Each structure stands twice: as C-alpha cells, then as structure tokens.
Amino acid sequence: MSMMRLISPLIPTLQPTDTGDRALNLMEENHLGHLPLVQDDTYIGLIKESDLLDWDNTGNELSTLPAANFKPAILAAAHPFEALRIFNQMELSALPVVDAEGKYVGAITKDTLLKYFAENSGLDVTGGIIVLEIQPHNYSLYQVARICENEDVTILNTQVNTNPQGVMEVTIKTNRTSLEALVSSFERHDYKVLEVYGDSKDLEDVMGKYNLLMNYINM
After folding, report:
1. What CATH topology corresponds to 3-118?
2. How far apart are the first and last CA of the chain?
3. For residue 119, what pLDDT is reported?
4. What is the pLDDT of residue 164?
5. How many of the other CB atoms lie within 10 Å of CB of 74?
6. What is the per-residue pLDDT across 88-146, written as a single tens digit (0 to 9) for each?
7. How many CA atoms lie within 13 A of 24 on its CB side?
8. Domain map (residue ranges) of the chain
9. 129-217 homologous superfamily
10. What is the pTM of this model?
11. Which parts of the chain have pLDDT scores under 70?
12. How far apart are CA 196 and CA 128, in angstroms?
C-alpha cells in the first residue's frame, strides 16, 4: 500500500508569503503542531509550531523564518511502516508526502496512520494475545507459527521487541479468545509465556493453574 490512500484532504498548506501568525492560526484550527510549506507544488519544508512560538516576528512572512529548514517527508510509494518510523523518531503531527521529483502530493496525520494499522494489522479483530519471552538464538517465527497452526489458531499479527536485557518479547495476536490449549502447547515446547490477554474464563483458569505450578516447582 502506498501513502496515497492515507493522505488527509483536511491538512492545509502554507506558502512562503504567509505570515507566522496565519500559520499559528491554521495550526490551532486544525489541532496540528506542523504544517507543510509549499511553493508552486514543490515541497519546501515543514513549519513547526514550536519554532513559530520562539519567533519574535510572527507578523513577517514565513520566507524569513530563521528555522525554516526542517524538511522531513516520505515518498508516495513508501510503505506505512516507514511513515510510522518517521513519526516516532521526529515526533510529528503531520508528515508530507512527495513524489520522486519532490513535488508535494499531500500529507498524512498520526491519527490516520494509527487508524490504518488498527484496521490492517488484526488489532481490531476479536481475539486473544499471547506474549512470549524468547532468547534471540532460540527465536523462530516458523516454529511459533507451527505451534499455533497445530492448535488450529491463526496468527493475525506479531510484534517483536527486545527488552533492555537483550531478551526478545514476541507479542502474538490470534483469532481465538480461548487460548488454554495454545498456552499449554507453548509450555510443552519450553516457551516462557509472559502475558496472556483474552476474555475467556477458561483462559484465566489455565493461567492461574500455570502460575501455581510454577510457584510449586520453584519452591
């Protein structure tokens, strides 16, 4: 999926001849801390509210703004994952989208991007979540998927994170809320189950029994 489907038609653009006061008013009206600066369809830069608030001459044109050299953007053909990375690293409220020639084609917001991931990553589909703790040298997504498949559980989404201790935490979103059999299967394969989220009473029971067993073994 390209960025084109994520572009919001509601994000206004600024021109170099606009004043800082106009930019601040547009930001307030649209609840955004960033707005794209565009001239003759060419993307010039991204105006930050924080820079405008530090500027003593907001009545002047944006072309005279000293800090107007911030230029984050994403190509229209890029994947939403890249947009998420940029949003996260630069703490943006809006991200300009450009074509290969640097022409401005629109902008996306953080809310639009989060909505996309919620709708396309299985997060809004009913199902349970299991979090596994795995040493990096033991990690195999193939094996994790096989265990789920053997229990007739479909993986809707996975997320891998490495904690400060260097251990991988694998979050698995499934199509089932009752995960008793899957939890047991992971334990039989020597996986450490950190957390389980589901709305099944059976799931609560199996995790309670598992914790009691672990406490007994560790006595």
Report:
1. CBS-domain (3.10.580)
2. 53
3. 76
4. 86
5. 21
6. 999 999 999 999 999 999 999 988 888 888 777 666 677 899 999 999 999 999 999 99
7. 14
8. 3-118, 129-217
9. ACT domain (3.30.70.260)
10. 0.67
11. 1-2, 121-124, 199-219
12. 7
Q: What is the pLDDT of residue 153?
A: 94
Report angle CA 22, 26, 28 to the nearest 5 degrees: 115
User: Residues 128, 141, 151, 153: what is their CA dihedral angle, to the nearest 10 degrees?
Assistant: 40
SS3 per residue for the chain: CCHHHHCCCCCCCECCCCEHHHHHHHHHHHCCCEEEEEECCEEEEEEEHHHHHCCCCCCCEHHHCCCCCCCCCEECCCCHHHHHHHHHHHCCCEEEEECCCCEEEEEEEHHHHHHHHHHHCCCCCCCCEEEEEECHHHCCHHHHHHHHHHCCCCEEEEEEEECCCCCEEEEEEECCCCCHHHHHHHHHCCCEEEEEECCCHHHHHHHHHHHHHHHHHCC
Q: CB neighbours (10 Å) of residue 154?
A: 14
pLDDT at site 210: 52
Question: Which residue type occupies 130?
Answer: I
Q: What is the pLDDT of residue 3?
A: 78
HSE-up of residue 197 (Cα within 13 Å, Cβ side)? 10
